[in-house]
């Protein structure tokens, strides 16, 4: 900003500037909020530095800083600052970099991939849920983007999390699979797309009062869709039916679980005429 060393020193002595890191100063008072700390860390590490990993997730609102301040730098940068965890990496592509609240930061998808290398499965699921709820990511786009990052460490845990949630069978394949699961569970072939309690349901066994809905994208259900799903299940339960929900992934790849639930439910079900 055009200040020489002597001008900076005089302002420090007068209490107008407070050193945070070499070359980075807080103006007016030494205390910094979270955003001030994040900006200071990025400035301290040079023009190519971006907030990343846990710090980026905290800035975006879907994570926290369990490991302190984290910044990513090109492998060629010699910068090192006490109190900042530096991740050295090859130059990130432009789509992985952005500015949020005037702070240089990794984009949400890049941030989730970075975080996936260090989070437990349930923490990762919570982060993805929060990112989706805050509209930081579209889960479909996140799933598709993983192909661009093939081979990176964070891709495998994210794919393991997202594959079951984004998988969908076609209507015909879903019906064929469910008929097979029902047959192996000792049930008759279900009615499909039947109207029950004023709702169109995926599968219905009127002689047992069992209703099955096949869910697709769990993450991408809006609050309105969630409320309607609850209302459907509640209406079926109130009328004496047995509502069940399976994901497309369970129906396709976990037949033992689906067949076991159908078998045990059928054993307890009673014929019902309430439809």
Number of separate domains: 3
Please give the share of residues in helix. Answer: 40-55%
N-to-C SSE series? Answer: HEEHEHEEEEHHHHHEEEHEHH
Number of helices: 11
Mean pLDDT: 90
Give the CA-CA distance, first to last residue: 75 Å
Q: What is the overall shape?
A: elongated
Q: Give the oligomeric state.
A: single chain
Strand numbers in spatial order across the main sheet: 8-9-10-11
Number of strands: 11
Q: What share of residues are in beta strands?
A: 15-25%
Helix-strand layout with pairing:
Elements: H1 5-13, E1 17-21, E2 24-27, H2 34-44, E3 50-51, H3 53-60, E4 69-74, E5 84-89, E6 97-100, E7 103-106, H4 108-116, H5 121-133, H6 139-145, H7 155-166, H8 171-184, E8 191-196, E9 199-205, E10 210-215, H9 223-238, E11 242-247, H10 248-253, H11 255-268
Parallel strand pairs: 4-5, 10-11
Antiparallel strand pairs: 1-2, 3-4, 6-7, 8-9, 9-10
Helix pairs in contact: 3-4, 4-5
């Amino acid at each position: 900003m055009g200040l020489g060393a002597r001008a900076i020193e005089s302002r420090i002595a007068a209490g107008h500037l407070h050193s945070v890191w070499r070359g980075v100063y807080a103006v007016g008072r030494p205390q910094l909020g979270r955003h001030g700390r994040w900006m200071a860390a990025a400035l301290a590490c040079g023009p190519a530095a971006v907030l990343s990993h846990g710090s980026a997730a905290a800035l975006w609102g879907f994570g926290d800083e369990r490991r302190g301040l984290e910044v990513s730098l090109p492998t060629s940068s010699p910068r090192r600052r006490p109190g900042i965890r530096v991740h050295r990496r090859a130059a990130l592509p432009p789509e992985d970099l952005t500015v949020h609240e005037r702070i240089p930061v990794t984009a949400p998808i890049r941030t989730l991939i970075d975080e996936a290398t260090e989070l437990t499965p349930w923490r990762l699921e919570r982060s993805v849920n929060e990112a989706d709820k805050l509209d930081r990511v579209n889960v479909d786009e996140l799933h598709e983007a993983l192909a661009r990052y093939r081979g990176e460490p964070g891709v495998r845990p994210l794919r393991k999390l997202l594959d079951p949630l984004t998988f969908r069978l076609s209507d015909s394949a879903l019906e064929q699979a469910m008929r097979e699961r029902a047959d192996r569970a000792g049930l008759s072939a279900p009615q499909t797309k039947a109207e029950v309690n004023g709702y169109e349901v995926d599968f219905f066994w009127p002689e047992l009062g069992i209703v099955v809905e096949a869910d697709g994208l769990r993450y991408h259900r809006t609050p309105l869709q969630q409320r309607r799903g609850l209302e459907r299940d509640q209406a079926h339960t109130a009328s004496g039916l047995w509502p069940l929900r399976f994901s497309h992934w369970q129906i396709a790849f976990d037949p033992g679980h689906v067949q076991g639930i159908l078998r045990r439910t059928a054993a307890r079900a009673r014929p019902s005429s309430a439809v």
